[in-house]
Amino acid sequence: MWELSISVDSKNFEVARFVYQTLKAQTSEYDTVVTCYEEYEKIYVLLACPETEQVRVSGIVERCIIKTICNFYKEKFLTENLHLPSHETMTVMAFKKALINFDKETDFYLISKNLNLQKNLYLDSFYFFRLRALREKWTELVTLANENSDYLVSSDAFFDLLKFLIDNLEIGEEEISVFEDEKGYSICLGRDSDDFQCNELSSEGLVSSLIELCPKKINLFCKSDEGTAGFLSKIFEERVNVCYDKAVEKITDRPNAVFVGRKV
């Protein structure tokens, strides 16, 4: 058997839960056992699989660790170091999400280059002691934003920078559809996806997921062009194709639909 222990501080409960749930869901077909427990102010995620499946499973683990650092650790870094003028909550959230996904490929490379899956991986220690170059890269981005904070006091200037960031994110999907109903929003790719697996999204969850997925085209089926629909049309501009429909077809009735997104 190939075994791996991944540990994080107990205060990083959300990190541990994401790692556990992701690995449990994505490695089940490879006869992998994933468990989790807490001890001495640390949370441990333990994984064991047949040696014949080590290459496949270790690849899944690597992608999971990279995504964890690029999402959770980078978001915390930005929250602690980014000093932005006061703007609407949705706009600031979208701005941080765009920064999280900005130049993501370089982030992935820097993490992968330093990641070595031995018997034990202390995730917090790995981040603080092996990823100094990654944090220096993030610092440059934050410093640039902070130095221009006076300019960003203007809502128009802030929105222009947000749109610039989104326009320069790497395209993740060719085309997706968004459906609004009484429970919230659903994102449908129409094909298999390893990413998100929920559909009753809030407005914040929808915006966050769309920035992360960064589609080339968004078909937005909604009841009004106000609120969330209007915000998406402003930040994604010509990528959004708004379809006003008072009786939106239930997405669950559509064959081969795959739900994606993250609840907020």
Describe this structure in words.
This protein is an alpha/beta fold and 264 residues long. Helix content is 47%, strand content 21%. It has helices at 13-27, 54-81, 89-101, 104-114, 123-130, 132-147, 155-167, 203-213, 228-236, and strands spanning 2-9, 33-39, 42-49, 120-122, 173-181, 184-188, 215-222, 240-244, 259-260. The strands form 2 sheets. A 5-stranded mixed β-sheet has the order 8-7-5-6-9, covered by helices on one side. Strands 2-3-1-4 form a 4-stranded mixed β-sheet. β2 (33-39) and β3 (42-49) form a beta hairpin.
Q: Any key phrases for this structure?
A:
alpha/beta, 264 residues, 4-stranded mixed β-sheet, 47% helix, 5-stranded mixed β-sheet, globular
Structural class of the secondary structure composition? Answer: alpha/beta
**Strand ordering within the main sheet:** 8-7-5-6-9
Distance between the termini: 38 Å
Helical content band: 40-55%
Radius of gyration: 20 Å
Biggest sheet statistics: 5 strands, mixed
Q: Give the tally of β-strands.
A: 9
Strand content: 15-25%
SSE order, as H and E? EHEEHHHEHHHEEHEHEE
How many helix segments? 9
| Unreliable parts | 191-197, 246-264
Structural shape: globular
Mean pLDDT: 85
